Amino acid sequence: MAVIISDILIGPNSAPLAGVTIKFIAAETSHFVIKTVVAETTTAADGAYSVTVPVGLYDVVLSSYGVRPQTVGQFRVYTDSESGTLNDFLNAPKTAPS
What we know:
By secondary structure, this protein is mainly β. Helix content is 5%, strand content 47%. Strands 3-2-5-6 form a 4-stranded antiparallel sheet, with no helix packed on it. Strands 1-4 form a two-stranded antiparallel ribbon. A hairpin with a 2-residue loop joins β5 and β6. The protein is globular. 15% of the residues are buried.
């Protein structure tokens, strides 16, 4: 089981952010992943990104050239999670869906 996380990464000035690496680092070992970097993508010139992420708990780290990597949150992908944006997952309730 996996979901597709995709959207356009927008910066604080409402402009798309190009060349930003988004890492999804497994925060625990499960039946689907081991505790390691599982998925990574870099935003395109228009800020677009798309990555497939398996079921599990993830820390999200953003980095770009010349800027120190920053952990921006944590989320869980469940077996019944639907694909969505990074913000959908970071802002989702922290409990299993009913």
